[in-house]
């Protein structure tokens, strides 16, 4: 027996006097992180922005052998023609948005969004690295006013067939914020943190292009360059929330004026729907907003590798989403 | 669209106790979960479920249960905020999280010292009750425990950090080096110094030899 063994024995003896994590700790940690669901998502800096993607040679080989069907990236770049094409797509998207029937939601109601989220996952087993696509069907109920408890349900789906469940449903309660305090949620303790409600029904957004453009720059909270962050904020605003037709139209029109926004040609969303996309690239990846090629309705987003300097082959789709349904409902768990 | 990439079951990272991490994220490497959490903060719960128990046990040993709750919460929050800087080539986040926890503990070094001093005193203060051989064993264990606690209290914070990450955190030398962002050679030298000090503090008493005298 040496001093390390004695220390380990002491550690085990001390364990017998410890009770372990308090029952509320998990809840506290998770509400610290996700307590303000909408805002927490919006605050997220762009994927790939501040980090260096370090990928081993082995991974690069795996990726090269098993790549997603790379979508058209030829038109990639910030040429005047590409910007003009992007502006045209966004102009049509704005026209479509403006003519959507307006939804109204009272403060006690919920915005329901059904979507598919898909991501390229890197798993490491010893020295062997796999790349696989993980796809989740996602349903979220977010309080229109941000004051009531919402809910997120997710189920892993087979990427080959979205209709086929590949795992159990997972539910995550999302505490609303009332009177400066997070509401208690099932299975959790209380949180002491101060909060402000995050409405999912975005009632106060600007409705003119210039005002919206200013809004996008002023309300950007990430750590990226302003033009990059403004485009990210545009994506954040429309993700799992509802903006009224005039505001949504202004948002698309404003996005066309952000420097570096160009056409991405056609793109596929996470549900396999073909679309046309506008994009902005930063640090080797391109953030794309995807629209229906005929109606120009917004159908999802994705993040694609556009420069090998990121360590991944060009064309790798890192993340994608597809918006399947957006509606106003009265209760959490209620389907439209 | 992605069917070509679904190439069979991925390996299952094991939790600290060897059990597979629960939930649909159970087959994902930590680096993948962290990457996902960039867009989906709630994914960070997966890391909590994998490591909170081990981190709490480690912190609890060093600073006690109550403070451990605070430190573990602070660790996950700090990790969440720093997740953009996580080196995605590192599949296993255990050293990273232990490194953050070590910094949090360093801020409470007074609490830790007070705890070790209290453990040192506990050998004589606490009444011993029970069967004679059990009493003897307890007395022996407490003697060793008091000496160890005293030795730990006297180590420099850097030495204590390395020694306990290895003895209590079950980190390898390489992992400890990652956790503390120091070269592995420094881990070795600090560890050797710390072990020698603890050995000296135990004096001539070999705890094993004492225990062998049990009837």
Verbal overview:
The complex is a heterodimer of chains A (336) and B (215). In chain A, 27% of the residues lie in helices and 32% in strands. By secondary structure, chain A is α+β, with helices and mostly antiparallel strands. Chain A has a 9-stranded antiparallel sheet. In chain A, helix 6 packs across helix 7, helix 6 packs across helix 8 and helix 7 runs antiparallel to helix 8 (245-255). The longest helix of chain A is centred in the N-terminal third of the chain and has 19 residues, at 80-98. The radius of gyration of chain A is 22 Å and the shape is globular. The N and C termini of chain A lie far apart (67 Å). In chain B, helix 4 (94-106) packs across helix 8. In chain B, 67% of the residues lie in helices and 0% in strands. Chain B has 10 helices and no strands. Chain B has helices at 30-39, 44-63, 65-81, 94-106, 109-125, 132-154, 157-167, 173-180, 184-201, 207-212. Chain B is mainly alpha-helical and 215 residues long. Chain B starts with 29 loop residues before the first helix and ends with a helix. Chain B has 2 domains: 25-107, RNA polymerase sigma factor, region 2, helix turn helix motif (Rna Polymerase Sigma Factor, Chain: A, Orthogonal Bundle), CATH 1.10.1740; 109-215, Arc Repressor Mutant, subunit A, CATH 1.10.10. The chains are: A alpha+beta (336), B mainly alpha (215).
